[in-house]
Amino acid sequence: MSLRLTALPLLLLLHFLHSTTVTSKKVCGRPVLPAQLKVDVLQRVYEPGEQLVLSCEQGYISAGGSRKIVCIDQGVWTAPTLKCLPRPCPVPDQILNGRADFDDIVFLSNISYTCNEGYILTGTNSSTCLHNGQWGASPPTCKPVTCGLPKIPQFAKMTYDKKFTGNETEFGFGGKYECLPPLALFGNERAFCAANGSWTEPPKCKFVSCPPPEKIDNGFLTLAVIREHGYKERVKYGCNVDYVLDGPAEIECEKNGQWSRKPACRAPCSIGIKRGRVFYNNKKLWIEDVKPNRLLHAEMVVFYCQDKQKGCGYPEASQCIDGTLETPKCFEEPTWNMYNLKAKSLPSENLC
Ligand SMILES: *[C@@H]1O[C@H](CO)[C@@H](O)[C@H](O)[C@H]1NC(C)=O
Ligand SMILES: *[C@@H]1O[C@H](CO)[C@@H](O)[C@H](O)[C@H]1NC(C)=O
Ligand SMILES: *[C@@H]1O[C@H](CO)[C@@H](O)[C@H](O)[C@H]1NC(C)=O
Ligand SMILES: *[C@@H]1O[C@H](CO)[C@@H](O)[C@H](O)[C@H]1NC(C)=O
Asked: What is its main location (predicted)?
């Protein structure tokens, strides 16, 4: 009986001792993990020595390290070493008439799509790399802006770059305006469907007339009627005998109502020496044998000058410029006596 009486407090004591050791031993709570790691936590607490198996969050893939963490005595988990990297998506293709911009191509990266000027984006302008390694949206397309048909002004016609049918044109498509003769085109000859969906400004076709063509000195208008002329009409000039045409023979009535620059008739020259010999037309001639003594505008003649110290001559050329032929400064006319001896050559012709 006494044993039974003393056994109960002992059991209570033992029970007391046991429960105090349990509460003083530290347990682990829910582990704190980096965002890309996950774990299935089933219990409220874990005893020291218990393990948990880690895995990568959706969109991340394992790149080495241990999948396990262990609850250690002080109630903390061992540091996780599992490495998880964002899953890559395929390198996106560039799009026609537009651009795909992106910094990275891994889980949660974005592509931003834009179309070039004159193109409209159809589809979505962005796409995100999903957890499964696929892009969330398919690339958009860039469709050209469309314009209607260009305005054709009265008295004009348009030649398109390419044949087309229908009543719609696309960005960049163009053509060339022409005004029907005799009208002149003012403005842009080229036109195209612009990025704003309109054609560029058409030109204007206007009637242009030039005053009756002017006469020229020492020349004449050939086959021309003295009257007003229309745009692009031409008249032709000629020169009197021995006069040389300087400039284009034909002039044209221009857009500004003025004629293009008319030519001039340049006068002939005569060689202004009484005695001497010259080289003209590939021949050496005494001046009195130059018949007629007349050079046409722009023709050349060579005189012979004398180097008195050396007793020899040297050639000096001169050109007829619109009625003026300069005798070289070095040229000296021989005396009447010397000249009329008519030696085979003059001293000035013995070339140095
Ligand atoms: C991608 O776009 C989404 C939605 O606009 C945004 O929340 C996210 O931060 C972007 N991602 C990056 C990496 O910039
Ligand atoms: C993309 O489209 C959205 C609406 O669909 C718009 O708010 C946003 O500005 C666009 N982004 C770009 C870069 O054009
Ligand atoms: C183009 O032609 C179609 C039919 O051929 C017509 O329905 C449409 O309105 C026209 N568009 C323009 C801009 O004239
Ligand atoms: C459209 O753009 C073209 C070329 O830049 C310009 O010539 C035209 O005036 C514009 N039209 C409109 C309606 O803005």
From this structure: secreted
Q: How many Å lie between the centroid of ligand 4 and the Cα of residue 123?
A: 27
DSSP bridge pairs for 127:
111
340 lines ligand 3 (CB under 6 A): no
Distances (CA, A) of 50 to 15, 26, 41, 43, 75: 26, 12, 12, 11, 11
* CATH code: domain of residue 345: 2.10.70.10
Q: What is the pLDDT of residues 58-106, one digit of tens each?
A: 999 999 999 999 999 889 999 999 999 999 999 999 999 999 999 999 9
Q: How many residues does the chain have?
A: 352
Position in ligand 2 atom list of the atom nearest CA 125: 1
Q: Mark 38-53 as b/e (b = at least 16 C-beta within 10 Å).
A: ebeeeeeebeeeeebe
pLDDT tens string 107-133: 999 999 999 999 999 999 999 999 999
Structure confidence by residue, pLDDT tens digits, 137-174: 999 999 999 999 999 998 999 999 999 899 999 999 99
What is the reported pTM? 0.62
Please report whether residue 13 resides in a domain. Answer: no
Residue 271 lies in a domain: no
Are 33 and 72 in the same domain?
Answer: yes
Output the CA 125–ligand 2 centroid distance in Å.
6
- pLDDT surpasses 90 at 300: yes
Residue 5 in any domain: the answer is: no
Q: Which strands sit side by side in the sheet containing 76-77, from one edge to the other?
A: 37-39, 51-56, 68-72, 76-77
What mean pLDDT value characterizes the chain?
A: 89
Rounded distance between C-alpha atoms, residue 90 and residue 31, angstroms: 34
Q: Is 165 in the pocket of ligand 3 (CB under 6 A)?
A: no
Q: Which domain holds residue 340?
A: 277-349
59 falls within a domain: yes
pLDDT at 84: 97
Other Cβ atoms closer than 10 A to 9: 9
Residues within a 6 A CB radius of ligand 4: 194, 196, 198, 200-201
CA distance 173 to 193: 6
How many Å lie between the centroid of ligand 4 and the Cα of residue 194?
7
